[in-house]
Design a protein that fits this description.
13 helices; 4-stranded antiparallel beta sheet; 407 residues; 4-stranded parallel beta sheet; 44% helix; single chain; alpha/beta
Length: 407
């Protein structure tokens, strides 16, 4: 059987030089789901015990709570961010992940929390969405009630999704700690602030709160719209590396839905989060929790700009500098800093010559002082006496060392 080769990079006539190949994305999604299903069936067949949770009359399709996540892994040629960002980015998905009615959501709000509870209990707020928000807690009560590590772990295990008011989301890492921020349940910011309204002069202003300590809360329909919008997005957690992983689907999704989510997330990452866009993308893969990463797109070029490619002469010079060592010299040569290698050598020579001159000048000065005929006889006798004492002390020290060695 002859092997068939499929190109993983497609040139595009539009602004972006590259684009995803939709048949390749669908093919990889289908193969990944088939692998996950076969591995799950193998584990169930080899298991000696039978699960008591699943009934015999269940359908072949898995519930979303039991489904395994599908991850998009995107690698870049240069680092995506310069520092770790605790506030995740959001990309809208055509097929959201948090649509199950059994998904439990915890909403962390600014004080007082009663305002948000009244908004959720309002008749105009959608009942289906209100039933999924199982807990509303203010930031002051979060500080008071969930100080112990065990209580934070319990809160983390009780809910599937955590939402937080965007005005207080930067305060949560210090309160919640690594219990929340080392996993995939980091609080997601949601805007609960009312939209700015235009005044008589045509300028947009923010509504003032009733009291100084309270915060204004948006109307029920606006809050519901913002929460649904946030739940329908994929979360992007950036770190100072050339790799980012985004959850784009579940094993219960059909292959076409996963392919659509992959395309939306890749385009969103290239347009909003990755510096230089598609030129900085090195590869795109999809994988499951315990599977290998399947490639759906690979770059032909390993550089971002044409200036990153060295000529033969420059490469040989870089190689020679690398053998001699010196990170600063390498950096200067790579960045083509004015002055480069010659300026550095000249600077070192000037510095060495200056230090040598200063040393010689000091010796000459001391010699002139010793040979000064006008120096008083008393000072010369005192110096001679000190030299003799030092000489005697050295002789005594040598004699003591020899005696110890003989014993």
């Amino acid at each position: 059987m002859a092997l068939t080769m499929t190109a993983l990079t497609t040139k595009e006539a539009s602004r972006s030089p590259y684009q995803l190949d939709q048949p390749q994305t669908l093919k990889a999604s289908t193969a990944l789901l088939k692998r996950i299903k076969s591995e799950s069936d193998r584990k169930e067949a080899g298991s000696a015990t039978k699960s008591l949770i699943r009934t015999e009359d269940r359908s072949d399709e898995k519930d979303s709570s039991d489904a395994e996540p599908i991850w998009l892994v995107l690698t870049t040629k240069r680092n995506i961010a310069d520092q770790r960002r605790l506030k995740p980015g959001k990309i809208p998905l055509p097929h959201p992940l948090n649509t199950s009615p059994t998904t439990t959501t915890c909403l962390i709000t600014c004080d007082p929390q009663r305002q948000v509870k009244d908004v959720l209990a309002h008749p105009s707020f959608p009942a289906s969405l209100a039933s999924r928000i199982t807990k509303v807690i203010g930031i002051s009560k979060l500080k008071a009630r969930y100080q112990p590590f065990e209580s934070k772990r319990q809160l983390l295990d009780e809910h599937d999704v955590f939402l937080a008011d965007a005005r207080i989301v930067t305060m949560l890492p210090k309160i919640l700690g690594k219990t929340f921020y080392k996993g995939s349940k980091k609080p997601v910011p949601v805007s609960l602030e009312p939209y700015r309204q235009s005044n008589a002069e045509g300028k947009r202003v923010v509504l003032k709160p009733a009291t100084e300590k309270s915060k204004t809360i948006a109307p029920p329909l606006q809050v519901a719209k913002e929460i649904e919008k946030t739940l329908g997005c994929a979360l992007v957690h950036l770190s100072p590396s050339n790799n980012v992983s985004v959850r784009v689907g579940l094993s219960s999704f059909p292959p076409q839905q996963i392919a659509d989510n992959v395309e939306a997330v890749v385009n969103g990452l290239a347009a909003k989060f990755i510096p230089k866009g598609w030129r900085n993308v090195r590869g795109v893969h999809v994988k499951g929790p315990n599977t290998m990463a399947l490639p759906i797109w690979l770059a032909d070029e390993l550089w971002v700009e044409e200036g990153d490619v060295l000529e033969d002469a420059e490469a040989e010079e870089m190689k020679a500098v690398g053998m001699k060592g010196g990170a600063k010299r390498k950096a200067r040569l790579l960045n083509k800093v004015p002055g480069g290698k010659e300026a550095e050598a000249e600077g070192k020579g000037v510095k060495r010559e200056r230090s040598t001159d200063v040393t010689k000048e000091g010796r000459k000065k001391r010699k002139r002082v010793d040979e000064d005929p006008g120096l008083s006889k008393e000072i010369r006798e005192r110096r001679e006496k000190l030299r003799e004492q030092k000489k005697a002390d050295r002789e005594d020290m040598r004699g003591t060392t020899k005696a110890v060695a003989v014993i």
